[in-house]
Amino acid sequence: MSKVILQVEDLRTSFFTRRGEVKAVDGVSFYVREGETFGLVGESACGKTVTALSILRLLPEPAGKIIGGKVILDGTNLLELSKKEMREYRGRMISMILQDPMTSLNPVFPIGDQIAESVRLHQGLRDEMVEQQVISALRLLQIPSPETLLRQYPFQLSGGMRQRVVGAIAMSCYPRLLIADEPTTALDATIQAQYLALFKDVQQQTNVAIIFITHDFGIVAKMCHRVGVMYAGKIVETAPTREIFKAPRHPYTIALINSVPRLERKDERLYSIEGQPPSLMDLPPGCRFFPRCSAAQDVCREQQPSEVEIGDGHFVSCWRVH
Amino acid sequence: MLSIIPNIAEKTTKGYTGLSRRARITRNLTLIIPATILALMVIMAIFADLSWLGLPNVGLAPHDPDYIIITDRFLPPSFMDGGKSDYLLGTDKLGRDVLSRIIHGARISLSVSLLVILITAFIGTVLGIIAGYAGGRLDGFIMRVTDMALSFPGILLALLLAVSIGPGYWTVVFALSILGWAGYARMVRGEALRLRESDFVAQARVSGASPFRIMLRHIFPNVINSLIVMMTLAVGMMILAESALSYLGIGVPAPTASWGSMVSDGRSYLDTAWWISAFPGIAIGLVVLSGNFLGDWIRDKLDPRLRQL
Predict the structure, then answer these.
(1) B266-308 pLDDT per residue, tens
(2) CB of B95 closer than 8 Å to CB of B71
(3) CA of A242, closest CA in chain B: separation in Å?
């Protein structure tokens, strides 16, 4: 098995607002190996993006604060680095692809300059070398005729092409870890499929570890080796992808998978989970899924379940498996 | 019949812009005419006389602008009844040549406004970007100072300055600059605030760019468009402000000509000798208008979306 490149331990991130503390990420632990894709799944506002931003230490200031835990990247705890050291890590060791390719590029500079920025920042190469590396980054993302694209402006490219350019920026320094925050949400279905295939290719060539944030189980099935399911700031179940689909154990995971529309179930009504996720400002003392859970017991109301390993790499936090 | 074919070929060649012939000509005229006018004004200012080469008697101005000939006072322009061919645009209340004074006045009016615009735009942009990007207390502090500058009566401050350091060229520049940056700061801060939240700034942060680099490389270039529009609009305001100060006696002291002081000098004679005010007024109008047209053109050129059209 390949080496663990990122280890997140008991990460806690809160936003301190006028109305009180919002526990956006509350004790999240997971790891990612080299060359592996780890999916982070969950509904909106469950803390996926905040987890990613915490790893990069780019939380919106001054409200957002990491209040505990460790983020160990290749043996270094990122939370102990100075601001300057952290900047060195961003782009060189970790990079991130944001959701919307239409706005992730600076409209007033040609593509080439924008990719070169990261290369210059981190590697201090001479100009001809920079251009070579920029072109090789564009090649890695399979962009046709990169030499002409260098001089073009973002508005001249299609959405799919822009997202590839964003990918090329992220990969330009060959980082060890790439965080992709729903990178395909803004793309249409065919381009989405292409882009995902491209990602797998890039991963095979560079052995980069990927954290893939999504709420689409179709993408999870296609892309991820392992998955963590998040609910209200906690990871409730972690398992290899195959295992998640074959034998999900947490009631929330089961409900999520059931609410994916399927072609073979034509006349049934689409399953949906009753109720709303709890307010992160006023969390219930017991299991966070308790009010919406179909298999709730008395103990669920009182106490939080701890994480139990029920199979090879399959972790669940639920009283039913205790 | 055959002539149709090369016509189509011509339209599809590289230079074809998609605009009709007429639109193309109009577009070019809005560049050529204002650029020519401004260039002429600048040449006029530089070559009014060649005293900077040690030749005070050689130059574009036909007369000494400050030379008083009382017998020649209130002479109308040469093309009117009673005009002398010697004075193309007539003379003022002291018999000084209006044309020569306009040519010399261009120096003061253009250099003061240019200098003030550059100084205020620079200060305003730096403060605005810092305030907008940093946010929080620093933003609050800078913007409160900006509010104070915007609400302070400029003329009063200029009077104060004139009393304490005495009237003169640099007093005018200082008096106009000391409050003028506030408008730029507020505008730029708003833009920076918007750009700070944009995805490409987030992307730059993810790539490990420092705050300074983000401000310089990602926020500033996106502010330039609005900045240039504001700067060109300020050309007119600065010329007028300079004239207001001259009128109050804070400006460049008499007899040195500036367009603003000429307009105010001729004010009392508008019904009998309109040319004293009208011609420098036209000069101001031409510069202001040309500045605005040129500003629009520069803005279009700087926007990559419009550049290729």
Answers:
(1) 888 888 888 888 998 899 889 888 888 888 888 777 776 665 5
(2) yes
(3) 32
Q: What are phi and psi of B29, to 5 degrees?
A: -65, -35
Contact B203 A169 (CB under 8 A): yes
Which run of H or of E encompasses B112?
A: helix B98-134
Residues from chain B that touch A107, judged by Cβ atoms under 8 A, are 200, 222, 304-305
Beta-bridge partners for A226: A38, A240
ipTM for the whole complex: 0.74
Q: Does domain B70-307 have CATH number 2.120.10.80?
A: no
B200, B203, B207 member nearest A121 (Cβ):
B207
Per domain, the residue ranges of chain B are: 70-307
Contact A239, A311 (CB under 8 A): yes
Phi, psi of A229 (to 5 degrees): -100, 125
Check CB contact under 8 Å for B199 and A104.
yes
The answer on pLDDT for B8 being more than 80 is: no
The pLDDT of residue B305: 65
Residues of chain B contacting A96 with CB distance shorter than 8 Å: 206
Which chain A residues are closer than 8 Å to B305 by Cβ? 107, 153, 155
pLDDT of residue B15: 47
Q: What's the DSSP call for residue A223?
A: H
Residue B248 has pLDDT above 90, yes or no: no
| Average pLDDT of every residue of chain A | 88
From chain B, the residues in CB contact with A100 under 8 A are 199
Give the torsion sign (CA, B31, B34, B39, B42): negative
Helix (H) or strand (E) holding B231, with range, is: helix B220-247
Tally: H helices and E strands in chain B: 12, 0
- Our CA angle for B143, B144, B146, nearest 5°, is 60
Beta strands in A37-119 (DSSP E): 37-41, 64-73, 76-77, 94-97
Q: Is B267 on the interface with A (CB under 8 A)?
A: no
CATH 3.40.50.2300 fits A4-93+175-232, yes or no: no
With 70 as the cut, is the pLDDT of residue B17 above it?
A: no
Record: contact B213-A121, CB cut-off 8 A: yes
* B141 C-beta neighbours (distance < 10 Å), count: 12
Q: Measured between CB atoms, does B22 come within 8 Å of chain A?
A: no
CB atoms within 10 A of CB B297: 19
Supply angle C-alpha A91, A94, A96, rounded to 5.
Answer: 80
Residue-level pLDDT at B6: 43
**Taking all residues of chain B, what is their mean pLDDT, rounded to a whole number?**
82
DSSP annotation of A272 reads -
**Nearest 5°: CA angle at B83, between B77 and B87?**
55
Between positions 106 and 125 of A, the ones with CB within 8 A of B are 106-109, 117-118, 121-122
- Domain residue spans of chain A: 4-93+175-232
pLDDT of residue B226: 86
Q: Nearest by CB to B207, which of A95, A100, A155? A: A95
**CA-angle at A22, arms to B198 and A214, nearest 5°:** 55
Residues of B in contact with A55 (CB under 8 A): none
**Rounded CA gap, A174 and A181, in Å?**
18
CA angle B113, B114, B116 (to 5 degrees): 65
The parts of chain A modelled with pLDDT lower than 50 are: none
Put simply, whether B198 touches A (Cβ < 8 Å) is yes
H/E stretch holding B42 = helix B21-46
